[in-house]
Each structure stands twice: as C-alpha cells, then as structure tokens.
Design brief:
heterodimer, A: mainly alpha, B: seven-stranded mixed β-sheet, 17 helices, 23 strands, globular
Chain lengths: 334, 534
C-alpha cells in the first residue's frame, strides 16, 4: 500500500509538467493580445509594442515557457500582467472562498444525493423514483448561470430571504483571519458574521450543487440497484433483517465505491462550475478571478490558477484512489 | 428526527432575518468589475476611477454635468500671452489624508513623478510593469519628449508650468482622473504598493479594499470643499448587469452603473427607482477599412450612409438613451457642428449610388488591396460598450438595413480581446467600434483617429488636410477659433463620408428613489460628497 501510494504520488509530477505545458500553450495560442486588451479602443501599434516589451511578451515562446517553469519550480507563479501583483499570494487569498463554496456544494450533493439515490433504488419505479429522475435530468441540463439568476431573483429580489450575491454584507467590519469566513466566524464566536456568511453561501452553493447532486443521486441509485440484486442481500433479507439494516449496513458500503469515484471526479467539474457560479453571485473566489483574467488575457493569472486547480484535481483523485482501500478492504495495492 | 428539526430551526433562524444595521449610514454603489489600482497616475480604467475620484482631487475639476473647468486644488490660474506658461494658484490650508500639507512642493513632486522616467517613484512602477499612460497620451510622452518643459514652485502655493508649445486642452487634461494629486510622503512610503493604500485630499478617505468584493471609503471630516453627507461609501463589485439590477431591487445596493438597454425600461417603470443619464460623451460608428478597394470609392461609402436607418436603430435598440450620431464629436462638445444633419435614410438613393459606382447588383464581396477577395463581413462588438450596448442586435439591424439596398453583409464577432487585436492589425473590412471622451475637449475625440494619415488604428484613412487642420487646432489657444476649426473638420469628414457615425448615448445610472444629489458627468468623473440617502 505504501509503495503504491508513493508511486502514485510521484506520477503527479509528470502530469503537472504536462498540464503546465498545455496550459502555457493554450493560453498563448488563444488569439487576442494582453497589451491590446489593456489599451482597449486607445491602442496604437507603438504603445502595444512598448507594453509587450515591458512584459517580456516579445520573446520567443519557448524562452517565455522556460522562464515561467523555472519560476514555478521555485514557487513563483509570476506577476499579474494587468495589476503587477504576484499571482501566488492573490491566489491563496481567493482560494478559501472557492473551497468554502465547493465544499458546501459537494456536501449538499452528498447529503441530498446519496439518500435520494438510496430511496430511489429501494422504492424503484415509485413516484419518488420518477420525480427524482426528472429532477436529475433537469439538474444536469440546467445552465448554471440561468439557474443562478433565477435563484437570485426569486429568493433575493422577490422573497428577500437571502442576498443576491457577495460573500458578506457590504461594509461589514468582520476581519477574517484565514479567509475561510465561516470557520473564522466560528472560531471568533462572531455569530452575526456567521449568519451573514451562511446567508450568502446558500444560493451559490445550491446553484453549484445541482449538477453533482443529480450525478451522485443517479449513480447511487444505479450502484445500489446492482448491489441489492446480489445473493448476500437476499440472504440478509431471508434472515428477516429489517429493511434499514439490509440497505444501510449491508448494501450501502458496497454500493458506495463507484459513488466515491464519481464524487472525486466531480471536484474537477465543481471547480469549473465555480467559474460561472462565482461570476453570477459575485463570489470572490478563484473561479471569477480566472474568468476576468481570461477576458483581459492576463496570462500569468490564468496559467497560475489553472496549474493550481489541476494540482488540486490530481490530488483529489489520488485521495479517492487511496480511499478505496479504506471503504473496501478487499482492495489491495501491490 | 427531533435533532433534524432542531437543526432546521436553527438554520432558518440563522439564514432569515433583516440586513445588518451598518447599512443605514452607508451608501453602496454597484459597479461592473474589479479595480486595477488606486494610484490614479497609472490607471486608465473607469472602474478604478470610481474610487480615485473620491479619494483624490485634481487641480481642476469638470463642473456639474458639463466639461467646463472649475477650480479644485488650484483656485486660480492664468496663461501667458503665448499660451506656453501656466501659473496655478493653489488652495491654502488643505491637508492630505495622512496629515501632510498640500502645497506647491507637493504639486511639483506629482508632476515630476508623472513626467520623468528616472523619478524613483516612476521608475519603480515601470519596473513593476506599470506605465503612466494618461500622462503619455495627454502630455505627449516623458522627459524631453513631453510637451512640458519645466514645472516649478514659485511660492508656497504657486506653481508654474512651462510648455514647449501651447496646448489648448491643457486645463481640460489636468481635470482627467489620472491627475489626482497624491501625497508624496505616502507614495514614497508604499512605493509600488501605493495603489493599495491611496492617500489624497479628497472628500473620502480610503478604508479597505476587499479583492473581488468591495472597496470601502469613509467621509473625510476635514475636507476643504463640501463635506460628505454619508458616512461610508462602498463600491461593490457585481460583474453581471442583471445581477447588479437584482441587487438594486433587493435593496442591497443604492445605485448602479451598467444597465442593459432592456432594463432601462424596467427601471423607468418602477416608482422605487430613478434613472439618471450621463450627458452624451461617446460615439459609436461603423469604420471602413481603406485597404478594401470598394471602400475607396466615395459613392460606395455614401451608399452605405444612406442605407442605414440610424434613427430606427436608436429608437428600437437603445432603450431611450441614444440619439442618432451625425459626426465624430457628440453634441455636448463645443466643437460640434450643428449644421451637419447626417445622411438621410434613403435606400433608393443608396442603390442609385451603388449603380453609379458599378455595383448595380449590390455588394456582397470585398476586394483587398492585394487582390484577395472575401465575403463582406460586418463585425460587431461582442462586449457591451457604452456606445453600442448590445452590439449583436445593432449589428443585425445595420445588416438588415444594408440588405434592403443590396449590400449583403454577413455578421461576425470575436471575443473582445480578439476583436481589438484584429482591429489593431487592420484585418476587419467593416466593423463597429466607438470612442468615449476623457476630458470634453474636441481634440480628445479627433486627433487619435485623424492626425496620423494612413495609420492602421482605424482603417488606414489618409487625409492630410484634415490632419493639418487638427494639428493647428490643438495648438490654437483661442477657443472660438478652435471651435471654428473643429466644425470645419467635421464638415470635411462628413463630405468625404469617412466613417459611418451611428449613435451617441447617454449612459444610464439607476438609483433608489431615496438617493438625492447625484450629478452625472459626461466624463464619468462623479463625486459622492453631494449625495445623500433620505
């Protein structure tokens, strides 16, 4: 197990190197020039050339890549083209907001999706099953930005139950320690700030959770159905065990394995979905930051943040692989 | 079950409830994005300027809703007879937010920072990848290249600026947001980080910048002018236009910029809001690329001009905030030529002109100078601009009008960064773009485009008489004489059908009915010290 874990961890390095090359290539391949974008309507060829020279964008591509990767190895993700700020500290400052949102969404997806999936499997072809199928289909196919706008409109504008966006009320003096606002509010015992933060979290978390929720629910259902048809389940039922015991103790653990894989994979799409959700709900995380940086062709930020996100996705998938063994003792790694 | 119910009750109690009372003394303005920096000298974006306009004062300001110059940190000024020496009398008893005195030395220090590349606080910005863009643009470069040749303190509160040649819009330039006067001590203290710790003399002091969320300012109790009526001012970053309107409707913000044209009607029809409009200071146009052979024929260009129903487009697609444009300058500028009525919408005439030019069957293809042919494409802007708030719909309407006269243009767009790049490289044959003015001076609307004959910046148009006329206007100090020159310039452009001017707009701002005292300015330099919440 240990040697597997070490080997598996080491494979991350070539993967990340590949990702860096791809990201660098793609970012520089997309048409559009940061210097021109910065100048907007006022661009003149002379000004554009001056800015390019200043930013080092006039050098050959491979030189730019080598300089970039050399810096990355030393933990330096470069400097924002537009703002001139180092990318890494900015990234770390925004990351907690994205983690908070993604965690809330994935928890929502698991806490709702798994029980719904189980119920649909147990009461197959019931009204609940049909409704959840329709719900899942809608959830998967609904554009996040549309759902986001609708949620904000209904719960923010019409009902006025929840804020339409942002992470805390305007002008609040709450000073987070770590930028994990909810955790900070709890640690400080600042209940007003906690309430404020939770109120702001609900709508974006729901919008972001729809797709993973639908996927988790359908996957749990399918996996559960498969397990429920096994012989040992029939034996358990024949022994006269209660339905809850059969389902939750005997079937669920085996059914969860593929669900776990799916949840691991969803982390990647959650971070992608965060770009839209954060933009719609003015959530100050890295998704929105990346979106704005793509618009302004801020290569350094797009590269840095993508590499960072890739590292996280790779790490989560590694963790999922390793978790298998914990969930299913039959799995052994050489 | 009981546990679940308890969790539910606590959650509901946490989530539902009134907004925090902190809002009462706080004005929240919803703006369209994230600022770049609050160092006015290095910024060019309107989003950063929302904040810098409150924190800094320039030497002169634009008055109310006009671009007339009024005193700010300079109380009085005079120019020498040859227009080359300006003497500025500064306001006395003013202090920067850090307690440092505002005087002639501070003004000279700011000028030298803007102007001299070797100034330590200029050089460090260059090394950090920043540039003093507006200085370069308005004062013709740095060091010896600049039109400024000397800036000196001739008393504790008197500054003398010497120019190499007269610059007619000198004062108008000094009113641009980039020339807010910063505290020299604070700039030296923070260096390249000054943009995160702005210190000026303005009506509001900087409190905090929460990245991608908001900027918080507080009223400056020692302000030399009208003191702010609100205690705190927050600029909240809400990128999406619809979402910003939702926040306004939900009462989370008190005012906003950047309304979708469709939403203008919504705001107008709702008694709890008010719609304010900035006087027009922009122009949206369709540019010809003069490397396209067909467009080198004036009759063809004139046919295009008669084919487009500008009034129809403005009425249908601008939500009541636009007017049909007739020339390069918007009507609010003093160089505007009232006698130019624009080409009337007349498809029959357009067809006739095309026939005369040898295109009896209309035009659906263009020929580049190198002989390469391609279908005629009308490029429209993918990003909303003040002059073309919904580029796609406006592009469609223009193409539909052109088709009625036998000009078949396909529509195409590109993501904004790509679009600007294609325009820079002169790759688009026929495209929509525009301009928003900086300082209310006609020079600002004209010289960029028309002073460099044959330059690629807008379709390689070449007309030396126009360029000479504009260069003359830019060094003439008598405004009446200049106005005459700019009117003449507009007439020449019009006669040559150099470009198709489509619309001027009055960019809308929406506010809650409770807001009083907000004065929209054509340049966007707007101040919150007059604003109150009732």
């Amino acid at each position: 197990m240990r040697s597997y874990a070490i080997r598996r961890t080491l494979t991350i390095l070539p993967v990340l190197l590949g990702v860096s090359l791809l990201v660098f290539g793609f970012v520089h391949m997309i048409p559009g020039d940061p210097a021109v974008t910065m100048l907007g309507e006022r661009a003149t060829p002379e000004k554009v050339a001056a800015i390019k020279q200043r930013l080092g964008l006039d050098r050959p591509m491979y030189v730019q890549y080598l300089i970039y990767i050399g810096r990355v190895v030393r933990g330096d993700l470069g400097v924002s083209i537009v703002r001139g700020d180092p990318v890494l500290p900015d990234l770390l400052r925004r990351f907690p907001a994205t983690v908070e949102l993604a965690t809330a969404s994935i928890l929502l997806a698991i806490l709702v999706g798994v029980p719904v999936g189980i119920a649909c499997a147990v009461w197959r072809k019931s009204l609940l099953d049909s409704l959840s199928r329709v719900g899942a289909l809608t959830g998967v196919s609904m554009p996040i930005f549309w759902l986001g706008l609708m949620l904000a409109w209904v719960f923010g504008v019409e009902l006025k139950w929840l804020p339409t966006g942002g992470r805390l009320d305007s002008g609040t003096s709450f000073e987070p320690w770590t930028n994990f606002v909810i955790m900070d509010a709890l640690l400080k015992g600042d209940w007003a700030a906690l309430r404020d933060a939770l109120r702001h979290l609900v709508l974006p978390a729901v919008a972001l959770a729809t797709i993973p929720l639908a996927v988790v629910a359908r996957m749990t259902r399918a996996s559960m159905l498969e397990v429920l048809s096994r012989d040992y389940i029939r034996t358990a039922e024949a022994k006269g065990l209660r339905l809850a015991t059969v389902v939750l103790r005997h079937a669920l653990r085996n059914a969860l394995l593929p669900v776990l894989t799916v949840i691991g994979l969803q982390v990647g799409s959650l971070l992608a979905g965060a770009i839209l959700t954060e933009t719609i709900f003015s959530w100050p995380g890295i998704g929105r930051w990346v979106y704005e940086s793509i618009e302004s062709r801020d290569y350094a930020i797009v590269q840095g943040a993508t590499l960072f996100i890739a590292a996280i996705v790779v790490a989560v998938n590694l963790l999922t692989d390793l978790l298998y063994a914990a969930v299913d003792p039959r799995i052994k790694y050489d | 079950m009981r546990f679940a119910r308890a969790v539910l009750v606590i959650t509901a109690a946490l989530l539902l409830g009134a907004a925090s009372p902190a809002l009462a003394q706080t004005f929240v303005m919803g703006i369209q994005g994230e600022a770049v920096s609050f160092d006015p000298a290095i910024i060019t974006d309107g989003i950063s300027a929302w904040t810098t306009n409150q924190v800094y004062d320039p030497l002169v300001k634009y008055k109310g809703s006009t671009t007339e110059i009024q005193p700010a940190l300079a109380e009085k000024w005079s120019a020498s007879a040859d227009g080359k020496v300006w003497t500025l009398e500064l306001r006395k008893g003013v202090k920067f937010h850090d307690g440092e005195p505002f005087d002639a030395a501070a003004v000279v220090w700011n000028f030298e920072r803007w102007w001299k590349e070797k100034h330590p606080q200029h050089e460090n910005q260059l090394k950090a990848g920043q540039t003093f863009e507006y200085w370069e643009g308005q004062f013709e470069g740095f060091d010896d290249k600049s039109i400024v040749s000397k800036v000196e303190a001739v008393g504790t509160h008197t500054v003398r600026v010497t120019l190499k040649q007269p610059q007619a819009p000198f004062l108008a330039n000094l009113g641009i947001f980039s020339f807010g006067i910063a505290s020299p001590k604070a700039v030296e203290k923070w260096g390249t980080e000054f943009g995160k710790h702005p210190v000026g003399t303005g009506a509001f002091k900087f409190v905090e910048w929460k990245p991608n969320q908001e900027v918080v300012l507080e009223a400056n109790p020692d302000y030399w002018g009208q003191k702010a009526k609100i205690k705190r001012l927050v600029f909240r970053n809400i990128k999406d236009n619809s979402q910003r309107l939702a926040a306004l409707k939900a009462g989370e913000i008190h005012g906003m910029e950047g309304l979708n044209p469709d939403d203008v009607k919504v705001v107008r029809g709702d008694a709890s809001f008010q719609l304010l409009r900035r006087p027009p200071n922009n122009v949206g146009y369709v540019a010809f690329n003069y490397h396209v052979k067909e467009f080198q024929d004036k009759r063809v260009r004139m046919a295009f001009a008669h084919a487009i129903n500008k009034k129809g487009i403005v009425d249908a697609l601008y939500g009541g905030i636009g007017v049909a444009a007739t020339q390069q300058q918007p009507p609010s500028l003093w160089g505007y030529n009232k006698d130019i009525k624009g080409y009337d919408y007349n498809p029959a005439k357009a067809q006739d002109l095309l026939k005369q030019a040898g295109f009896a069957n209309g035009i659906s293809e263009i020929t580049w100078d190198d002989g390469k042919k391609e279908p005629l494409i009308l490029w429209y802007n993918s990003r909303a601009r003040p002059y073309f708030p919904n580029g796609k719909e406006i592009g469609e309407a223009i193409a539909a009008d052109l088709a009625k006269s036998g000009i078949k243009a396909q529509l195409q767009t590109a993501e904004w960064a790509v679009y600007l790049n294609q325009r820079k490289d002169g790759k688009m044959g026929l495209y929509m773009l525009g301009w928003t003015g900086d300082n209310g001076d006609p020079d600002n609307f004209s010289c960029y485009f028309w002073c460099s004959p044959g330059a690629s910046r807008e379709g390689f148009y070449s007309n030396k008489p126009i360029a000479d006329l504009l260069l003359r206007a830019s060094v003439t100090t008598d405004q009446a004489e200049r106005a005459k020159l700019y009117r003449q310039f507009e007439q020449m452009l019009h006669d040559d059908v150099a470009r198709l001017f489509i619309a001027n707009t009055e960019p809308p701002l929406a506010f809650s009915k409770k807001v009083k005292g907000y004065v929209p300015n054509p340049t966007g330099s707007e101040y919150f010290n007059t604003v109150e919440l009732q």
